[in-house]
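Technical annex, item 7. During the second reporting period the consortium partners agreed on a shared format for inverse folding records so that results from different sites could be compared directly. Each record opens with the tokenized structure and is followed by the designed sequence. A conforming record, contributed by the partner at site C, is shown below for reference.
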């Protein structure tokens, strides 16, 4: 049947294995009989009889092996002479199916619908059943993996395996895994064997326990807080998963596998690293001694589906008039600063806005870990580089911005402004590179301007406050504020223009904002996107591109 679950002692495992043998020791074992019973229907009948003869509370407190023994005994009674038509594998599967139908009431595996419509099995609550069934399968497979993986590695050429495709590796190690299962006397049903093969291939080619989460399109973020705690974000809310690593060394191995693919490293001498996955997902790794409780991995998944301004409008992240104004702003080559908190959707919006860039323009992107996915044919992607073991060879964001100016770019897109590169980016925007875009961490548009001013000071340039603000006002045309609100939905809460200077103060005007109006019964926030009705300051630029009439209609 399966490895024991929830008991953890040899006696329980032995009891369950003996239960699996009950069918084998009764009768002559003639597997050549022609009339084989339907396993699903028979399992449903067995489970119904078990529940009739045993109290649900008793089943819930029994060791799993003892429950399996009761299931096997009743299976002998139900099958009668028909048991002779089943081979050993089918007998084990029958016990497994019956046990999985019985255990939902005792916190066990997922309930399977009976094949025989005449057999009525009352289902347990769906949430508890689903969680416990997943937990059961995961526990069985994880225990088998821990026992089999060391023996498997001894039997194969690991370097050759790393060069194989996933289907090739699965085919190559299949026979070896079955031999090891037999040598170690590990009993697993066919479903569990398939799960085990998938887990082993993930361990050898992929990112181990993280692979199912990476394949789940509903997951936006994956956060590994040590070996026993993995969180994900779904629909803006954090959830604790059942994913587990063996130990800190296992987490560290996966982290090193991620960063080594792009030529970076993470260890005690370099405990922080930004990296990316093959699909563009952004990864941050921090390890001891800086991470006290063990290695931590944070993955911001790259969405497989293209997010456009039209899609954002349908999802109520933005209104249709706001989307129109942003499209016109990008097409009119405005310098746009996207402001927002962590995980608010800044990079997603930057990707959406970049789709308005003309295909004939040369675009240079600059990032710490390349994650922008521009669709234009003429894009040059630049990525920073950390120092080597001797502390030499670092290439900073500022170095790349300076170099980009020598590459004849039409637009420069900076993944995120964090420090001294702000002064170079502002100078680029002021010297003919209209239509450039970048992101910044800030909670409000006015705060974004203050942060830019502070970053100019980080460059070591001794500019008076008025001179710094004048440069900001001349360089930035529009600030788009993005927020992830408490209902988990990301919304554009403000579109603000920079108009100019009045004395020492940068003057702005807000074109759109999100007005909060309350909370619906389902927990979603109610509100509306409102236009200020003001004439946009960039109307003259829009007129140059023939878009002024559409702009005024959107307002």
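Designed sequence (site C submission):
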């Amino acid at each position: 049947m399966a490895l024991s679950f929830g008991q953890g002692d040899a006696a329980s495992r032995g009891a369950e294995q003996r239960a699996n043998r009950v069918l084998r020791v009764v009768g002559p074992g003639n597997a050549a009989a022609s009339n084989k019973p339907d396993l699903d229907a028979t399992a449903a009948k067995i489970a119904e009889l078990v529940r009739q003869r045993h109290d649900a509370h008793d089943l819930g407190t029994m060791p799993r092996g003892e429950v399996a023994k009761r299931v096997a005994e009743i299976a002998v009674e139900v099958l009668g002479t028909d048991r002779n038509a089943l081979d050993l594998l089918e007998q084990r599967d029958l016990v497994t199916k019956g046990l999985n139908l019985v255990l939902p009431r005792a916190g066990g595996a997922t309930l399977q619908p009976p094949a025989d419509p005449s057999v009525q099995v009352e289902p347990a609550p769906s949430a508890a059943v689903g969680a416990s069934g997943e937990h059961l399968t995961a526990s069985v497979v994880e225990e088998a993996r821990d026992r089999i993986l060391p023996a498997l590695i001894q039997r194969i050429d690991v370097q050759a395996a790393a060069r194989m495709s996933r289907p090739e590796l699965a085919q190559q190690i299949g026979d070896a895994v079955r031999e090891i299962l037999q040598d170690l006397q590990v009993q697993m049903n066919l479903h569990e064997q398939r799960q085990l093969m998938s887990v082993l291939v993930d361990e050898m080619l992929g990112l181990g326990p993280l692979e199912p989460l990476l394949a789940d399109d509903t997951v936006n973020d994956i956060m590994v807080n040590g070996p026993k705690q993995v969180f994900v974000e779904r629909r803006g809310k954090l959830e604790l998963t059942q994913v587990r690593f063996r130990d800190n060394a296992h987490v560290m191995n996966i982290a090193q596998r991620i960063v080594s693919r792009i030529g970076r490293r993470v260890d005690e001498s370099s405990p922080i690293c930004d990296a990316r996955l093959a699909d563009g997902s952004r990864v941050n790794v921090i390890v001891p001694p800086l991470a006290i409780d063990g290695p931590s991995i944070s993955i911001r998944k790259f969405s497989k589906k293209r997010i456009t301004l039209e899609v954002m409008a349908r999802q109520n992240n933005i209104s249709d008039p706001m989307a129109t104004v942003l499209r016109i702003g990008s097409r009119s080559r405005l310098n746009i600063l996207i402001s927002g908190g962590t995980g608010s959707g800044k990079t997603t919006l930057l990707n959406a806005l970049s789709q308005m860039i003309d295909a004939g323009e040369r675009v240079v992107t600059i990032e710490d870990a390349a994650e922008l996915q521009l669709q234009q044919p003429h894009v040059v992607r630049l990525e920073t580089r950390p120092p080597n073991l001797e502390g030499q060879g670092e290439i900073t964001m500022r170095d790349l911005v300076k170099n980009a100016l020598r590459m004849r770019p039409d637009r420069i897109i900076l993944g995120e402004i964090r420090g001294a590169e702000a002064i170079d980016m502002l100078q680029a925007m002021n010297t003919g590179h209209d239509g450039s875009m970048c992101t910044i961490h800030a909670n409000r548009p006015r705060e974004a301007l203050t942060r830019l001013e502070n970053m100019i000071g980080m460059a070591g340039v001794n500019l008076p406050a008025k001179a710094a603000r004048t440069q900001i006002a001349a360089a930035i045309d529009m600030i788009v504020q993005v927020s992830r609100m408490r209902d988990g939905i990301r919304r554009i809460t403000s579109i603000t223009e920079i108009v100019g200077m009045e004395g020492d103060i940068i003057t702005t005007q807000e074109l759109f904002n999100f007005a909060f109006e309350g909370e619906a019964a389902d927990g979603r926030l109610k509100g509306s996107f409102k236009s200020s009705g003001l004439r946009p300051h960039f109307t003259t630029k829009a007129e140059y591109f023939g878009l002024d009439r559409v702009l005024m209609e959107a307002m």
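The first helix runs from residue 10 to 20. The chain has 21 helices and 15 strands. All partners now use this format for quarterly exchanges.
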